[in-house]
Design brief:
Blueprint lengths: L1 H24 L3 E2 L1 H14 L4 H8 L9 E2 L1 H23 L1 E5 L6 E4 L4 E4 L10 H19 L13 H4 L18 E10 L5 E4 L4 E5 L4 E2 L9 E9 L2 E8 L6 H7 L15 H10 L5 E5 L8 H11 L7 E5 L12 H15 L3 H6 L1 E5 L20 H10 L3 E3 L4 E5 L2 E7 L2 H7 L36 H9 L6 H12 L28 E5 L5 E5 L2 E5 L3 H4 L3 E3 L3
Parallel strand pairs: 1-2, 8-11, 9-11, 12-13, 13-14, 14-15, 17-18, 18-20
Antiparallel strand pairs: 3-16, 4-5, 6-7, 6-10, 7-8, 10-11, 12-21, 16-17, 19-20
Helix pairs in contact: 2-4, 9-10, 10-12
Length: 555
């Protein structure tokens, strides 16, 4: 014990010598109480760099003399720690998560909970991985659906008074020998005979959809549906067809506390500070631009105009989605893309405030060169071959995957660049009714995406006229069907695999579970915005077609 005390005293003496020497090199001297206090702080935090950080900041504070007492030392140290803490919050306020880094949570039906699958996975999976894709999707929705009041039978006899109607889900296996109208959860599939089937985890049955009435949503092959009908001669005649309604984000998080489905977990001690910063930076916007054709003659000028408009009101981030050229680059033309990004870099460097205060996030489009000729999702980010200049000259630049996830303070944002509207419409088994009135809770809620001119569009059209035209449109349009379908399916791309190939081992990176706060769907379709079950979804439209973009303020 005595030896340990002596060793500590010797270490403190050596530390005092190093501190005194460092201060003398700056022409400063610490009084003994101040020196002892600084030694205590360093020992408590186990960080000797505190001395260097103090000396780097001391010039910013007016000192009465070159001799520093304990009171002055404490005031400056408190200020240094506070500034460093604020800087760490700002640095952590925007986090970009690559799809290939997304955690793989799988549902365990026996334990009624999720477990994290940490098994390393190759890019290309085997046949078993393809089976897992659909099995995991169905299990994910089934566990969610069984908690909803509509499918939960009353526990006590007295509950029947308050619960007038509920549905019992029947497995396909139990349809046989059990006549009458039943409600079934399953996946729509199609085989070589050209007929559609409904398939669950154990069995499949041929379905007749000719008389099926639908609600809001789209239904394609590989979609998971709730079908009501009757089994007649080994064929399930569907009378009503619907998507399994999405669960509120708050309900999911309350059911599975402590699980971060989104990405690397945030430090719990940092969360309250991020929430405070989010409210303090209420005017911070996220600028979303899609189809940034860098080879278009006017694109660079319009981008310079965009940056100029925000140099005094610095956004938290710029999200640029591809395609980054009007036509796919082939053969030796790939080198042109580097020249385009170098030109873009020079334009960004004209605005130092944006370089210092904004994140620049680049998401590749379907035809951008991403190191793989196959157009399979998720897509890797653009290779450094094309982006080296931007990455070397900008502090906060991210060339991420498609789709990707962005955590802004306490909010979770999913970004997906895909022409999903036309693909879902072309592959719909049952034509959607765009004149159908929305069901309760499904109506689109208008929400401002910007409160000063230029936020929605840089075109010559008057934004107010556009809003008036939107109000005169039918109650439900195609894009509302799309948003509801993606949220209900808990998946960004519930299309047949031949139509939209997916890496089987990374299908989980396309999950929308729990629902994100913000869903950004980059599409060639006209600009739209809808809110469904607390998830705000929007499409910024094509920048290079009409110079439109979206400025969204998360707070």
């Amino acid at each position: 014990e005595n030896f340990r005390v002596v060793a500590d005293e010797m270490a403190d003496a050596q530390l005092k010598q190093r501190i005194s020497k460092a201060f003398k090199l700056r022409g400063l001297t610490l009084k003994l109480p101040a020196l002892n206090h600084l030694v205590r702080v360093i020992n408590e935090q186990g960080d000797e760099t505190i001395t260097d950080r103090f000396l780097e900041s001391v010039d910013k504070y007016p000192l009465p003399s070159a001799i520093i007492d304990q009171s002055t030392l404490e005031q400056i140290l408190e200020s240094v720690f506070k500034n460093e803490d604020q800087n760490s919050v700002v640095e952590e306020s925007v986090k970009v998560i690559n799809a290939f880094d997304a955690p793989r949570w799988q549902y365990d039906d026996a334990r009624k909970s999720f477990f994290l699958d940490t098994q390393p996975r190759t890019l290309h999976g085997d046949a078993a991985a393809k089976i897992e894709v659909f099995r995991n999707r169905l299990q994910l929705i089934q566990q969610r659906l069984m908690r909803q009041d509509m499918f939960s039978p009353p526990i006590l006899p007295g509950d029947l008074v308050h619960k007038q109607e509920y549905f019992t889900l029947t497995t396909i296996e139990d349809l046989y020998g059990n006549p009458g109208v039943k409600c079934v959860l399953g996946m729509l599939t199609q085989f070589h005979d050209g007929r559609f089937y409904l398939e669950d985890l154990k069995r499949m049955v041929k379905v007749d959809l000719s008389k099926a009435k639908t609600v809001l949503g789209l239904f394609t092959e590989n979609c998971i549906v709730v079908a009501e009908g009757e089994l007649i001669n080994d064929e399930f005649h569907v009378t009503a067809l619907g998507n399994p309604q999405a669960e509120l984000r708050s309900d999911t998080l309350r059911t599975f506390p402590g699980i971060d489905f989104f990405g690397p977990p945030v430090d719990p001690q940092l969360l309250p500070k991020l929430a405070v910063y989010e409210q303090e930076a209420r005017d911070k916007a996220i600028i979303v631009v899609s189809d940034v054709w860098l080879d278009h003659p006017k694109t660079m000028d319009k981008l310079r105009e965009l940056f100029s408009g925000y140099q005094l009101d610095v956004p938290a981030a710029f999200v640029f989605m591809g395609n980054f050229t009007a036509r796919p680059l082939v053969g030796g033309d790939h080198g042109k893309l580097k020249a385009y990004f170098d030109q873009l870099c020079n334009i960004i460097l004209e605005f130092p405030a944006l370089v210092e205060g904004s994140h620049f996030i680049f998401v590749p489009g379907p035809s951008d060169p991403c190191g793989n000729a196959l157009n399979v999702v998720p897509r890797h980010g653009l290779p450094r071959t094309f982006t080296s200049t931007l990455q070397s000259k900008l502090r906060h630049v991210h060339f991420t995957s498609n789709p990707c996830r962005i955590r802004y303070c306490t909010q979770e944002i999913v970004v997906f660049r895909e022409d999903i509207v036309n693909k879902m419409r072309r592959n719909a088994i049952v034509a959607p009714d765009i004149d159908k009135k929305p069901a309760p809770g499904e109506a689109s809620k208008k929400r401002s995406v910007g409160d000063h001119e230029g936020d929605l569009s840089m075109s010559d059209k008057d934004d107010r006229d556009q809003e008036e035209e939107k109000e005169e449109e039918p109650s439900i349009d195609l894009t509302q069907h799309i948003v509801k379908t993606l949220c209900d399916e808990s998946h960004l791309c519930p299309l047949p695999l031949p139509v939209r190939p997916i890496y089987w081992n990374f299908d989980h990176s396309l999950y929308l579970y729990p629902l994100p706060d913000i869903l950004i769907l980059g599409d060639k379709h006209n600009q739209y915005e809808h809110t469904y079950n607390g998830c705000f979804a929007f499409n910024p439209s094509s920048f290079s077609s009409d110079w439109s973009f979206v400025a969204y303020k998360p707070a």
